[in-house]
Amino acid sequence: MDVKLPMTVPCAVHGRAEDDTQQKHRNPHPVNAFRNSRTLGFIALVVVWLAAIVAARVMAARYERTPGPGAAPCAWPNDVSLQRSATHLTLLVFVHPRCPCTRATIETLDRVLRTCGDTVQTFVIACDPSRRDPDWRAAALLAAAAALPSCTVMHDSDAAVTRAFGAKTSGLVALYSPAGHVLYWGGMTEARGMSGQGVGAEVLRRAIAGERVTIPRPVFGCSLTGGE
Fold it and tell me: What is the DSSP string of 69-93?
């Protein structure tokens, strides 16, 4: 006896389910697509932000380690109004009253001079050639400079003394013998605004003690006459 099996009829529902699944893989849900794009955008924003921070820090570090314009050491000028000591060493410190980097120079110099006794007569020459700052004589930097041992603050409002010595960068320190020979010429810090015991401080201390040292040294500070 022949038994006839029922013919298999394709399930339309099953077929539609498979088609829907394939369609979902081809076309993700709009909400999920939006979330993915937002996540990628956030990651990209974080990467850009971190890159900007790194770039800013690199630029800041490079600026801190970049010395100001240099100047060749010179003997004491004959036509300058400032009189050097005939019995002591004369130390000149050229500063711009508004230079934030030079505060470190004053702090470092204070530590050096307090170990030298009364062998040095110090002049801090404050330069403001622009004459556009009515309060520059009362700057906090000059008050700190006035507290240096055996120090006189000189207001060089027309920059005549500054230019006579060829000083270009705030923080330049120049040491002269009673005969007017330059014994030290350069900066006191190893970077802009970096106080502490550095090479410059040690070299100056040796020069004050009578040792012959290698000059000039780099000066880290703002321009004295360029309006920086």
Answer: ------PPPTT-SPPPPSSSEEEEE
